[in-house]
């Protein structure tokens, strides 16, 4: 201390000695009395000592700081004051920074700091505290000599701190370091040492913790062995005995869940019951031990189905939650476990209140611990179960979100990963079954496969994960008919059954799943052995399940379908009797509020109808079948698709056996409403089209039934409600709301804003998720949840508007009377309905108060399909459907078409095109013209005197050229062109909306945007587009029309085209186009620097749009599976806002297209009487006449009615007003 310290006087030494003695005496007295005043007096004495020794730099300062810190720690332990612990740490850290004059003192300081930091971590959860605890423990051990009696304790403490950090972070490194430290502590502890049982127990806990992360069975075996030894060595009155008993019970429980061995679960419950017996009613650990024992009883119920175990589990969990105070760190897990027990009772008994309570408890758990993957996974499962009962997509969306986050938050390699992956895959599978989204099915398979791949082969839950994977693959088989998938499905299902003990709760369900897969193979391959085995397996499943089990309904329904399938194959009446018996038993056990009721009623209806066919003289049986279908169709719960299937079956039976008007009206009203539910705004446009593919003919069937009953007005309404659904939905979202604006501007603003958001959400595309990270997938599903939420808000908002007096019909489909009141002033709108049983035209004319019904008995859907096939083959033979590319030489370049290839062959004489056009004329068009008294124009007057007809064909007729029907090249040649000017409209509503909202276009604001794209990448050159666009441009300048011309190379990006489309009233696109049958929204125009697809176009609401001339190929072709949805570029342009569109049904010749376009615009821009140019702007009001004129000019130039000539001019069509 020379030169730097003061000499300590004898008086100061006496003071310090007295302070030390007084402080030590107070500490000792506190140990006996636990009086706070004693420890506080000791702290004051030590504080004074620190102060005095600090002033003279006494080498004993470290001792004084150390004992002060230790005393503060004692006060914290007794009184729980966090400030005392904070001060203890602060003082201890000061002591640790001083030069050490004694290893004894320094190791004591370091050891106390380790304790204090670890204790503060336990209180606050601050990870930096546990890291500091580990650091000081390691420093303390480094300074503790080998052989020191305190070394085992310090090694043990280091292990505990590492274990704490592992439990907080999941970092496997920490627990892997904790175990060697604790092992060494145990090895250094002599036999008979009273601390040995405690250290063995802690070591067992570390092995158990690592097992929970890795699933390595050696760890759980070691855990059990160490804690067993601890229990053997500990005295029976050891204070920690209940804790150790509970923990070894937990280890047995974990091993049971891993291997499924019931003796482990028996041991588990025995140990936990002993732990509970040793726990006083007022003990702080009582709620935790109640919780642990409750979960063990729940596991035993799930294995044995003993209801007394389930009741005991719920009772214990309820008491555990009741005794746990708010704010307790273990409250979330106890809430979650109570939720699991209640959820299990719901699955057993079907009580909805149990499920609601379960979800409520689990939601509270997630709210308290939002980053805990276990709680998120548990909540996701409960929501998924409620979706199965409620069919509410919001539940399923929330379930997927919870399960995704659970997977994302679970450390890689954790033993819970397989279960969470499989659960997430199952949720995607459920959504696929509801929405038919291919992306959801792909995700289901990916996650379920990964679950099986990473799962230990001896895991007790592996059978369930195998079954989940099999279910997803079976759905893929249903879509693709890939037999390899079904073979794999059955293999997985058999393995799942083989791995499951017969007394396990899941065994009947797994048998049932295997039976259903075998029936699927029977349906595909026809082997009766498969069906017989399926019946046997499902019968065994039913026998092994209690009749009051919630899952019994599915087993009964499955057996009913099995016996019905075998009856269909063998005509064995006992099978049909059993099918009906099982179905009726299931019906008896099904609550009226169960969403599975419609499916069951539908099965029963099919069974009873088959019985009625065996007893044709008993109308009561047939009536019962119809009654079941009716009840299923009109149910208020259950998946809309199931109810729609029931409605279709009901409708078919009515048509075949009892076409009573009132029943027909009810069944098709019900069915059309269900179609709207299936294709709701909660789905993207792309998915709505997927849903519609399977039900495309329903509106036509409805209209056919109405026509058969002489109700053309009802036929019209059903066609309008059931066809072009997606376009109608988009139109509704864009409907002007001026009247609502005047009544309630705020409400109108909300409607407008929400409609825009829904349009944007609906226009998004399904994206391939291959290679995506989980956070990216979570983001996409968050968007889907937001979309669903918007749709629900929209429904509520529309309901709010309809509640206002005078707005009750807001956005509802227009009745026939409204349609009739908004027809064009002149001309006819003709809807042609075609269905398997009949063909009818419904003609509408301004001034008529009802539709004109025109039966067309000589035409049929069979003829329409044959004509379409013949025409398609003809077009392919002429290479007018081919989109391949060829090398183009100068000799053929001037004859290239805008499909992609030139039509080389010239066929002499009549061919398919003549036959198709002639058949359409004789069987459809001429009878309609005759009925309407439309006569042939035999004079040379201009075309403008011809009446207009707007054709609205349905089904396969949508692909046939009605506008060109006629007899060509014969002595009695005549065609539709001699009688009328033709246009098309996707629906009557699309036309009447234009009439109703029609307003004149300000000529000063009109303009034409022209673009030619002669050399789009990957396509053949169409050099004529340059000439076409330049000729139109020059003509526009001549007539004073505002015009913008852009060639492909002059534009950098697609957005430029969009901007010009928005700023000009009319557009002329001379380019290639492509129809995408797999994804209709991907149909597109092909430009030099990109593509403009239908999905992008329909997002635009071009309010000032007037005319679109699509001088490209196949822009009105449509998609075969969606014949009544008008999924083509022409309809897309109408939906985007254009009033009229010129389009093509197939490839057009580059040689003719420029002149057709020139003749078209010359007619529009030149006064038809005196040839005087129009002044300034223009509109497309006369565009149908202009196209009629241009085509007549082309026919004159062609000079013949050869097959080749017809194929050159027939493809041009006009859509719109």
TrEMBL record:
<dbReference type="InterPro" id="IPR024983">
    <property type="entry name" value="CHAT_dom"/>
</dbReference>
<dbReference type="InterPro" id="IPR011990">
    <property type="entry name" value="TPR-like_helical_dom_sf"/>
</dbReference>
<protein>
    <recommendedName>
        <fullName>CHAT domain-containing protein</fullName>
    </recommendedName>
</protein>
<feature type="domain" description="CHAT">
    <location>
        <begin position="944"/>
        <end position="1216"/>
    </location>
</feature>
<dbReference type="Pfam" id="PF13374">
    <property type="entry name" value="TPR_10"/>
</dbReference>
<dbReference type="Pfam" id="PF12770">
    <property type="entry name" value="CHAT"/>
</dbReference>
